[in-house]
Amino acid sequence: LRAAFDIVCDNVGRDWRRLARHLHVTDTKIDAIEEKYPRNLTEQVRESLRVWKSAEREDATVSHLVRALRACQLNLVADLVLEDQQARENETAGSGGGDKSPAESLTSWDSNGPALGGP
Asked: Cα separation of 30 and 101, whole Å?
């Protein structure tokens, strides 16, 4: 979720209030965030996401965030979040077997080699 927050902070810009409302952050909290960080847009976005995360707890998920982004017509940002999440999942899947992968790849190459050359 932290990586998704970084992407949102870097790309949402002034639309953060609309996103915060879709994430059920109250107008009172939005106003308080603006007062706390009057000239720092990135921190306003980040704080609104923190408020959402602390309110939603286990319901504060990347998929929930992506749905809210799409509801705000922030589809490009939603796509960036999903692409990053998929890349991280692929890294995790690849690194999980990192110790075994060289041997496994050699074994699978050796075992598949004759089959590829056959009729």
From this structure: 48
- Cα-based distances in Å from 6 to 20, 49, 50, 101: 15, 10, 12, 31
CATH number of the domain encompassing residue 29: 1.10.533.10
What is the per-residue pLDDT across 46-69, written as a single tens digit (0 to 9) for each?
Answer: 999 999 999 999 999 999 999 999
Owning domain of residue 35: 2-94
What's the mean pLDDT in 35-44?
A: 97
In a domain, 67, yes or no: yes
C-alpha 50/C-alpha 45 separation (Å) is 9
Q: Are 62 and 4 in contact (CB under 8 A)?
A: yes
Rounded to whole angstroms, the Cα distance separating 12 from 3 reads: 14
Question: Confidence band (pLDDT; 50, 70, 90) for 94?
Answer: confident
DSSP code of 30?
A: H
Q: Is the pTM of this model over 0.85?
A: no
